[in-house]
Design a protein that fits this description.
Layout: H1 15-18, H2 21-35, H3 45-57, H4 62-67, H5 73-86, E1 91-95, E2 98-101, H6 102-128, H7 131-142, H8 152-182, H9 192-198, H10 200-223, H11 242-263
Antiparallel strand pairs: 1-2
Helix pairs in contact: 2-6, 2-11, 3-6, 5-6, 7-8, 8-10
Length: 264
């Protein structure tokens, strides 16, 4: 399960790692939002260059990041097929009741490239930001909403716990799968229904272990006197420094240029 990048963190000492987590969260958010203003393949070129620059500065192995697409390849393929078969235009091929158009091929490639850029940019965030920093950054960003009764701290904690346990659950699923295969279970052969049925011996113990982990975590938090909504101190307070402001302004400038060129 080393291909799972969501929730994983590479503890390197790079410029991106040292940035304020709020800057990285806002930067990735702006990056993803601005991608939807692009309407041509050439328009994706600055985003690809920026992504490669972030991977290089963060010392993130490119092969590892692209391997992280493997768990989401099914979603990417389904999304591409939907666009390929539902987009109308100049017909290139006919497959039964479905027509594949020139516009459909273009839109499919366009959509797949957009999804890949979104996934990889999110991977950069998780690779360079520890779960604790991510939690603290989200809590700081959402803290102004506390005056309206918004549970910023609780939401940030839930997101942090989810990210922390995603790789753990995948690893545990792999261990259970290998144990079931050693006992003669077959997860590969048969039709879709048979394969889905064969997943039951995998899902049941996985859910049971997940509930047990949740109960153990709740007990540990209670033992440490964690109380929802209570003010808590931090060992290391995060403060915006000069490099953080410059990086944030750079992201805003980049995204503003893309949006301006879109409407010009």
């Amino acid at each position: 399960m080393t291909n799972i990048s969501i929730g994983q963190y590479l503890p390197f000492d790079t410029f991106i790692h040292r940035l304020d987590p709020r800057v990285k969260i806002i930067g990735v958010f702006l990056y993803i939002i601005t991608i939807f203003f692009v309407d041509s393949f050439l328009g994706y070129l600055p985003f690809v260059i920026l992504l490669l620059a972030m991977l290089g500065v963060g010392k993130i192995p490119i092969k590892s990041v692209f391997r992280s697409l493997k768990p989401l390849i099914f979603i990417i393929i389904i999304t591409g097929l939907i666009n390929l078969l539902t987009t109308r235009g100049e017909v290139l091929w006919s497959i039964g009741p479905f027509n594949i158009s020139k516009e459909g091929v273009y839109r499919t490639g366009f959509t797949i490239l957009r999804l890949i850029l979104i996934i990889l940019s999110t991977s950069v965030l998780t690779y360079t930001t520890s779960p604790m920093e991510l939690t603290y950054g989200l809590e700081k960003l959402l803290s102004p909403l506390k005056r309206f009764g918004f549970p910023a701290g609780e939401l940030a904690m839930m997101i942090s716990i989810s990210l922390r346990f995603i790789p753990t659950l995948f690893d545990e699923a792999q261990k259970i799968r290998m144990a079931q295969m050693a006992r003669g279970a077959d997860f590969e052969s048969g039709n879709i229904i048979k394969r889905a049925t064969s997943m039951i011996p995998l899902l049941v113990p996985l859910f049971i272990n997940s509930f047990k982990r949740s109960d153990d975590l709740a007990t540990a938090m209670e033992a440490r006197l964690y109380r929802v909504g209570e003010p808590r101190t931090k060992l290391n307070e995060i403060l915006m420094q000069k490099k953080d402001w410059i990086t944030l302004l750079g992201f805003i400038f980049f995204c503003s240029l893309v949006i301006i060129f879109h409407f010009v």
